[in-house]
Design a protein that fits this description.
Blueprint lengths: L8 H21 L2 H25 L10 H20 L23 E5 L3 E3 L4 E3 L2 E5 L1
Antiparallel strand pairs: 1-4, 2-3
Amino acid sequence: MDTRASAPKIRSRTLLLHAPLINFLRNQLYRRDRVQEMRKALTMLVTGAVLVANDVMPVPARADNGGLAAGIVGGLAVGTLLGAAAAPRPYYGPPPVYAEPAPAYVPVRCYWTNGEPVWDGWRGMWYRPRIQVCD
């Protein structure tokens, strides 16, 4: 006799009922515009956190030993990093490929026929040589 407990049928029916909802939410999560919206929201959140942190802990501004220049350079560096992280990533598709079309093959029509009469001095007579004509 099997002593293992089997999963109740209600549970599997519940999963089957929720599968379309789970797939819908998964598709909504990975949409490209949602990702860009989330990136913008995260950028605004980080920017706001930096501004609030700056206001919460006030420090007197002093330019001892080049501290002002270091602050400006550091601020530009941090701004560059945040700007690069928030910039949209454009998608560049593959370059167009030029494929030379296959040559249109037209079979050459050739046939043999008799040409213009020619005097044959060796045999002492006129004759018509066979010639090949190709169109």
